[in-house]
Structures are given as structure tokens and as C-alpha cells.
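Q: My labmate handed me this sequence with no annotations at all. I'd like to see what the chain might look like in three dimensions before we decide whether it's worth expressing. Could you predict it?
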Amino acid sequence: MRSSFLSRSVLCASVVVLLSAAVFAQVAIGVSVSFGPPAIPVYVQPLCPAEGYLWVPGYWSYDQDFDDYFWVPGTWVLAPQPGLLWTPGYWAWNGGGFIFTAGYWAPVVGFYGGINYGFGYYGDGYVGGRWDRDHFYYNRSVNNVNVTNIHNVYNTTVINNNTNNRVSYNGGPGGVSARPTAQQEAAARERHVAPVAAQNQHVQEARNEQQLRASVNQGKPPIAATDKPASFHGSGVVAAQQAGGTYHPPANRTASQSNRNEPARGTATAPRAEENGHRQAPPNSGTSARTGNQQQPPPQRPENTEPMHAKDVSPHPQSNPSNTGNAKQDEQNMKEQQQLQAQQQKEHQQLQMQQEKEHQQASKQPPNQAQQQQMEQQHAQQTQQMEARHAQQTQQLQQRQATQAAHNQPKQPPPK
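A: Here is what I predict for the chain of 416 residues:
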């Protein structure tokens, strides 16, 4: 058993090293979403399949193609190497939207937003098990383990005072108020290992399951957990017993929105902003600012791939503000757009200089693949978060100016 686990660990560790920064960035970087994810659903944990598998709790991810959250089922994942523990990802309010921070493997469990994911992840640390050399010992009080097949077990009673709180995000209205400790902040700066290939496949499979979308299941996914990654059928699949709370999407995310999941036959879907390399935050409400009968389009970028560095981002094209019919107001609108563009360009240049400086510093140090990969992942996160923030700023300004233009349209005389 021990040699088999070590062989699998070496294989998985090799896969992790081969994962490119681009692949990890796609998993790690969340868009800025104007409304929070549903609550964590209530479900039971499937049986641990074999020694060396660690529990990775389920969470809500976000699909830009359908403007919808989707549930990534909890699952048992073979640890990439002995000694590593999983820190779950989490959603957090940043003042302008909800941003997702990706999970990672590391020797110490770091901050995950204070979210109560259950099964040992009750908001602070992990009490579901521990490593002893190259063997993982499972705490049976919080894990579903068959002791006939797995002998590395112990029993430690865990008091979970967070049972009634199934909120799935940190900060913002109704969010968890936890903040990272000094130890957790230190853990975040330590060596991290990206999600393994099986986890990435698990997320993609979940994304393709229409029944896992929040607009379809209303916070109660029929596949809440699985015994192995990407295994969504069979006896190892567990359905949610109930939703963690009532799901209240904004007005523009009604149940009928799920019809977008299946494009009409004979029609082609219009390219979305993110397909051009631009992460677009959804509007804050279902009401779009209009000028006459023309809807203000969201800003787009010409890139064809997700930017990894600030230097990869093309300049922002400036669009003409809506005609309000008031020359003074039009001049003011143009000035506001120019000021915003100048501010965004300054932030862009500052980030580019910072990243280039870090590249130069890294080139003077002895080669370290793990540190290099971590730096590239951080640069990708910085760049794409900047793009999401700039997109949201631009859209908000355009919507406000379009609303002004609509209000200044001459009123039609009442019919005689």
C-alpha cells in the first residue's frame, strides 16, 4: 500500500509540475461578479475511496458564458505528494464585486474566507486529518472512512459552532466577517502547489453539467459530492439534501435565463466580451441604461487570449459618449471618459513596471521552478483582476452617461 501510494504521489506531483501557468490561471482567477453565490448546500460526504485521498469540499464557481454560478461537487482527491493539505478557494467582496481566490495545496492550510465548507473545514484551519510522514491519518469524527480498507484513522471530537452559517462568501452584505490571522497571511506566502489535473478536469465536467447551474437547481445541486474527481455518475454520487438557503439572484438572472444554456437552432450566438480576452463583470441589475432604443454595449477588448502580464494587454479603445442633446453635458461626459482612461492607463503602466522589475530580480537569483511558477501565477492574477476592475469601471460610467442621455431626450407630446 505504501509503495503504491508513493508511486501515485510521484506521478501526480509530476503532473502538477507540468501544468502551465496559463492553465492554473484559468482555474485561479475569478471574475468580478455583482451578486454573491448561493449558500453552501447540505449534503453528506461519500466514502473515501482509498488511502492518500484528501477531501476537497464543494464550492460555487462562476461561468461567464451563461452569467451563472455552478456547483463544483466536493470530491476525494489524491494528494499530489505526502505532507500537502488543501486550502479551499473562496469568494470575497472587494467593494465593487465578488472575487474568487483559488484553492491550493501547501504544507499548511491557509485562509479560506472563514467559510464553513463542512467535513473538517469549518472556517478556520482543517480538523479532518493529519500527515505522519508519508501516511495521512483520517479523523473519523468528520470523515466517512471504511476502517476495513483504511487503517490510518483516529477519533477526535470536533465542536462545530458554525453549523447554522452556510454563507458562501466573505465580506459584503450578509457575508462572513472573518479576517486572516498573521499565521494565515504567512501561510499564503509559502510555497503552493496548483490544483492537480484531476481537479481541473473535475471543474470542467461540472461546468458542462447544466443541472449544476444555480439558475437550474436553485442552490440544491443534484450532484453535490462524488467519491472521485469527474465521476458524476454511479453509486459514489451524492445529491444535496437541501439548499443552504433561499437563492435570490438579481432580476436579470431569472430561471428563464437558463434557456441561454441551449442556443436556438439555426442561430449563432454573438461573441461575448470574455471571448476577446476581456473579463466582463455583469451589471448590477436587470435594467440596462438606454439611449432611445439603443442599448449601451459593454466594453470589449481585441485580445484573443487571457493576458498573463500587463504588457500583454492592448491599449483600451475609447468609445464616444452618448449624445445627450446638451453640448455642455456631452463635453463633460467626454472629459470623464478621458480621465478614466488616463487613470486606467496609469495603473496599467505601474503594474507593468512592477512585473518587469520582479522578472529582472528573479533573473538574478538561482533558478527556482516553483518560485517562478508562483510569480507567473501571481502576475496573471494581478493582470486579469486589473482587467476586470477596469471593465467594471468603464461599464458603470457608460451606463450612467447613457441614463443621462435618456433623461435628456425630448419628451413626446401627449396624444390628442
